[in-house]
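pinned: reference chain
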Amino acid sequence: DDLVTGVQTCALPIYPLRASFDPNPMSLRQDQLDDFQRRGFLVLAELFDRNEISRLAAEADRLLIERADLISPRNLRCRFQPHVTSGESLFEVFDPVCDISPVCEEFASDPRVSTVLRDLLREPFLLFKDKLIYKPPGARGYELHQEDRKSTRLNSSHQIISYAVFCLKKK
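pinned: its structure tokens
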């Protein structure tokens, strides 16, 4: 499988993302909270079902075609990576994406995500970053890294949580 799409959003504890919550949202168990505190990450493979992931993957494909007018090195919302062997410039990111995609906005503001983030942070939060990352074949990718306060201009009292939804597609 080739990884083709990742939607990453980050949360900052300030204000609620959405006022309405699902009456039966997923709440984290204590062992999941403990695991997150110990390891620094948590995998929730069942948060979205296959149909939802397929819908998000289809939206990523749609944006490549229907919003090709935005894809330019001169557009600050777009980023490119060189191909590992040819050096060809490969489109990689719409950043931000929620303002051009109601589907991505829907996933970013989903009450299941809000509940998980609220449980992890133990306080209200604010979505401050959203992006759609494509990983085309041959893209170099990034070194292992963590989001840090320097890159986001936050002070030490702010917590940062990044979450990602990955859509895998067979070629």
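why pinned: The two ends are 7 Å apart (CA to CA). The CA atoms of residues 18 and 109 lie 7 Å apart.
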